[in-house]
Design a protein that fits this description.
The chain contains eleven helices and eleven strands. The chain is an alpha/beta fold. Helix 7 links the parallel strand 5 and strand 6. Helix 7 runs parallel beside helix 8 and helix 7 packs parallel to helix 11.
Length: about 260
């Protein structure tokens, strides 16, 4: 039982809330049954799992997952509630926190034929939701482009609901890097509220990429120059949708066409 908040392993895990530390050591801090279970199901081996015995005892799903990881040889460390509280960022923690490798090496399908690019998406909830929708819609790669929130921010992780371990993702600081990853994809579309071309008039069955910009100022100039703007027609004087909602609608229209085609 770890009883001190100054325990070296606990201190090292706490540092992973800092972006620079995450990338320096190549690890992230994942919290909750769903996220950890999804990671394990996708073949990701936790470096260590910290748990609060009292909280796990009160949560059958957490107890089952912990028992399975322990039986599989995962390093599982019991903590006092006071120590565990220093590792959690949720109001009602589920009793499990894991240190996992950053999932930045999932291979792309070559060549890419269906990709999502987030450009200047700063809201972590939107970014995580878009990543989750992308995984569900069969997107082959998600690119976190310029001025976009870190994909391993704790709020992005929670909103992603395990999608970080299911769809390949990459981080690009410039649009030139985005273009290199997209390769020869001939059709790039940008979601914009005032565009003339409707999203369901696009042929999504061909190799293509969707760019979603931030709600405040939209995508950057390089993305606008590279993409064709598309919009979701709306009634009732509504000017625009939440970025995550709009992106998800378009992704599932693309998935429908690709499935039927």
């Amino acid at each position: 039982m770890i009883t001190s908040i100054h325990n070296p392993r606990v201190k090292a895990a706490r540092k992973l809330v800092d972006r620079k530390e995450r990338y320096a050591v190549g690890m992230l801090l994942a919290e909750g049954v769903r996220m950890i279970a999804d990671a394990v199901q996708c073949g990701v081996e936790p470096l260590v799992v910290f748990y609060d015995p009292l909280a796990v005892e009160a949560n059958p799903a957490a107890a089952t997952l912990l028992a399975a990881m322990d039986a599989g040889g995962t390093d599982c460390q019991a903590c006092t509630p006071e120590v565990f509280a220093t590792l959690t960022g949720t109001v009602t923690p589920q009793g499990l926190v894991a240190v996992l490798p950053l999932p930045l090496n999932l291979p792309f399908q070559a060549p890419l034929t269906f990709a999502l690019v987030l450009d200047a998406v700063r809201d972590p909830g939107n970014a995580g939701t878009l990543l989750r929708s992308a995984a569900a819609a069969g997107v082959q790669a998600v690119i976190f482009g310029p001025q976009t929130v870190d994909p391993f921010n704790d709020k992005v992780l929670r909103a992603g609901m395990g999608a970080h371990f299911r769809v390949p993702l990459r981080i690009c600081s410039t649009w030139e890097q985005v273009g290199q990853l997209l390769g020869s994809i001939p059709h790039i579309y940008l979601a914009e509220a005032d565009a003339q071309l409707a999203y369901d008039q696009v042929d999504w069955r061909v190799p293509c990429a969707l760019v979603v910009g931030g709600e405040a100022s939209g995508a950057g100039a390089p993305a606008r120059a590279a993409a064709t703007a598309i919009a979701i027609p709306m009634h009732g004087g509504v000017e625009s949708l939440n970025a995550a909602v709009a992106g998800s609608i378009i992704l599932f229209e693309a998935a429908r066409q690709r499935r039927e085609g």
